[in-house]
Design brief:
Elements (H helix, E strand, L loop, with lengths): L2 H37 L1 H29 L11 E4 L3 H7 L1 H4 L7 E4 L4 E5 L4 E6 L13 E7 L8 H13 L3 E8 L9 E4 L7 H8 L2 E3 L13 E5 L3
Parallel strand pairs: 5-6, 5-9, 7-8
Antiparallel strand pairs: 1-2, 2-3, 3-4, 7-9
């Protein structure tokens, strides 16, 4: 074998050894990581890092709050909610009156009875006043009511209008879709009928209108698309 070929062979063997050594190191490191992960050490380290980050943010908030307290009187016994404004255009669309002069990176400090926009870099209060923070809340479904008036001495249906007002005052999701005279006259008591069954608020409705819970009286037509029927009686 020529000297040149021997040198090339040595280089190949050396490169192969390096590659094998690197693969061995990778496998060993992976095995150690897997063992630590199974033992919970990696999770513990990650958790400690998160807590450290949260503590740093809390310290920053405290510093900003201390700065703000030098220029405005704030409650000492209440810890406010604090946030950095990052999307001012969205906030301006939600509440333009409050956020008009605010900008990104301003601080929003929220107490139970007031909110403050504070420019910590300029040491300047931008706005103080009430603010509503939009939250994801389940939508309240409307409840359709029907009102039948059984009173013979109320041809103008004044009692129907009064009953509608009473229902809507007690239940802001109430919608009166049917108003008519009953088939029978002068029921002695106002009746409240659950037309869909198992309405959890039927007793509350009866109490609000001063009526008795009942089934649909014989001879009365059941209105379509209605959850609750109220038949106005003498009492």
């Amino acid at each position: 074998m020529k000297p040149r070929e021997k040198a090339v062979g040595k280089k190949k063997r050396r490169a192969l050894k390096i590659i094998l050594s690197l693969l061995l190191i990778i496998f060993v490191a992976f095995g150690i990581y897997a063992a630590l992960e199974n033992a919970g050490y990696i999770r513990a380290l990650q958790l400690a890092f998160q807590i450290q980050k949260q503590t740093a943010l809390s310290a920053e908030d405290k510093q900003v709050l201390s700065q703000l307290k030098k220029i405005i009187l704030l409650p000492e016994d209440i810890t406010p909610t604090m946030a950095v404004i990052t999307d001012i255009e969205f906030l301006k669309k939600q509440q333009p009156g409050f956020f008009t002069n605010a900008k990104n990176n301003d601080r929003l400090i929220i107490y139970p009875d007031q909110a403050i926009i504070f420019d910590a870099a300029a040491n300047k209060i931008i706005k103080v006043g009430p603010v509503q923070i939009a939250q994801n809340q389940p939508q309240v479904q409307p409840v359709n009511f029907a009102i039948y008036n059984s009173l013979k001495d109320d041809p103008a249906n004044v009692k129907t209008t009064e009953m509608e007002t009473k229902i809507k005052t007690a239940f802001n999701n109430a919608v009166v879709t049917v108003k008519a005279n009953s088939a029978k006259y002068d029921y002695p008591k106002t009746l409240v009928i659950d037309l869909v069954g198992n309405n959890p608020e039927i007793q509350k409705i009866a109490d609000a209108v001063g009526g008795n819970i009942s089934g649909v009286p014989i001879g009365e037509k059941k209105p379509e698309g209605v959850a609750v029927l109220v038949i106005i009686g003498k009492q």
